[in-house]
Each structure stands twice: as C-alpha cells, then as structure tokens.
Amino acid sequence: MEDHHLEPKIFACSQSEILAKKIAKYYGIKLGNVVVSRFSDGEFQPAFVESVRGRRIFIIGSTFPNSDNLMEMLLMLDAAKRASARHITAVIPYFGWARQDRKDKPRVAIGAKLVANLLQTAGATRIMTMDLHADQIQGFFEKPVDHLFASTLFLPYIKNLNLPNLTIASPDMGGSKRAYAYSKHLECDVVICYKQRLKANVISTMELIGDVENRHVIIVDDMIDTGGTLAKAAELMMEKGAISVRAICTHPILSGNAYERIENSKLLELIVSDTIPLKMESSKIKIVSCAPLFADVMHKVQDNKSISGQFLM
C-alpha cells in the first residue's frame, strides 16, 4: 500500500501540547498517544502508546529553553525511528538556539548547526518550522526544510486594521529584509531602527532611519525576548511624532520582566503567534494562531503537493 494512503499520526512534545491539539483539530485527526515516564532526578522517557510502523508521523514541539524541550524532541524522534516510522517530520514552530547561527566572536559554538545535526541524527527525515532567526539555518540541514513565514498569518490582521498612513518598522538592521517584504505587500513606507548593544539584551543607543511623523507604525520582528528593544523603539517613535505604535513578533519568548515592560510601554498592542505558550495574559498581547497554517502545510506534505503557495514573502 502506498504510504500516503495511510493516515499520518500527529504527536506532541509536552511543551507544545496545546498548540499540537489545535493543529491536529485543524488537520482533522486526533492527537496520538505518548506517555512520558519521569525519574526522580529529572531524566524522562517518552514512549509511543500506539504503533507507528510504516507511517508518516509529525512530532510537534518548539525547542525554547530550558534544554529539556529540545531533549524531549530528540528522544521522541529516536523512539519513532526505532519503532520503524517511515517518515518522521519534526514540526518545530519555534526553532530554539537559533541566535547562535555563526561565530560572531572568537571561541563560541554555532548552536543552531549543532541542533540541526542532533535532530537529523535522532531520526528527523524532514523539518518544518516558522520564521527562523536567520534564513540560512536551512542550509545546516541535509534533509528537506519547510520554512514557513508568519507573514501569512499577520498580513491579513494588518489589512483588517485599515490604518491610514501606515509605516512598517524594523527594530534593527538585521530585520530590514523582513520589514521590506511586509511593506511590499502593504505598499507602504519602511523605517529602520539602528541600535548598538554593549552586551546581549542591553541596548546602549538607538536611532531612527526614516520619518514616522503623523504615521501609524507597525514594528515587525521574528521574536520578542526581554521586550527592551521594542519598548525603546516605541518610545523613540512616539517622540518622533508617530500617532500609534504596534508590534508584530512571531515568537513570544517574553523572558525576565518582559510582560511588565510591554504593559508599561508606549506600544498600543503586541501581536504574536502561539509558537511558544504565553506564561501569563496581558491586555496588550493578541494571539494569531499558527495552527491552521501548520495543519495545511502538513496536509500538503502528506499528499505530496506543492507548498510554495504558502509563501507570501
């Protein structure tokens, strides 16, 4: 029997269970059964409670720290490989450790490459992810990578706001390509923040390239960690005469006192996807789910159909 006539199975790592349930619902099948046994020292062992022999399976899990989340994905991949699954797709909505994508100073690891090697060694035959921190991380894999863009989710949201005088902003030089892609679809201007950091997560100076006076600004970025950059950017833009400032960030890492920082910032709202579960609710944070997009692409992969129509950027 041809393998794509067999229904695939979808499994969840524990950190992404809520999202995986949504994806499975959109896909139209029930989430597969996994049991995780835990030892008292913190070691754990996931086990599939149903046969996966000869099947295509999707294992859903974002690999944000702590490293147990990555370890659980690796153990699940290895278990699936040893249980004779035919195709094993690691669905990693947020690909953690991706900020270490090159040697930006002497004697450091290239963490993203290491993670890519680990995933392939563990048994992933395909990777599906969204808004990688750097596009070239795809090149760290020898297996096919489906790199989805969150713009597919966020562009309709922006269009529904019907904002006059819209301007898209990039919070740093590195995100300018993303900002230009959004502006092309929305046919609007772009401004860029130029920031200098003394060390990770600490900004020393920030300047604005471009004009935001009397404009509604939307800052786009791939992730929000401490929220420092966005809060500072929003404040700078309001000082320069912007009418309103919103931010769109795919991955809501939101560590440290990020929630407090967002609440107290000049941001009108922060729009994120659910690649990482929120730790708390906030009146300013709106979620646009990535579940329909992943379910749709998973269907196409299962049916050997082209997914290029999903790429707005």
From TrEMBL:
Q: Which reaction does it catalyse?
A: D-ribose 5-phosphate + ATP = 5-phospho-alpha-D-ribose 1-diphosphate + AMP + H(+)
The UniProt entry's GO biological process terms, in alphabetical order, are:
5-phosphoribose 1-diphosphate biosynthetic process; purine nucleotide biosynthetic process; ribonucleoside monophosphate biosynthetic process
The region annotated as signal peptide is: none
| InterPro entries in alphabetical order | PRib_PP_synth_CS, Pribosyltran_N, PRTase-like, PRTase_dom, Rib-P_diPkinase
EC number(s) per UniProt? 2.7.6.1
> Which GO cellular component terms are attached?
cytoplasm; ribose phosphate diphosphokinase complex
The entry's keywords: ATP-binding, Kinase, Magnesium, Metal-binding, Nucleotide biosynthesis, Nucleotide-binding, Transferase
The answer to whether UniProt assigns keyword Magnesium to this entry is yes
Pfam families, per database record: Pribosyl_synth (PF14572), Pribosyltran_N (PF13793)
Q: Name one GO molecular function term.
A: ribose phosphate diphosphokinase activity
Query: What's the name of the protein?
Result: ribose-phosphate diphosphokinase
Task: Provide the species name.
Answer: Lutibacter profundi
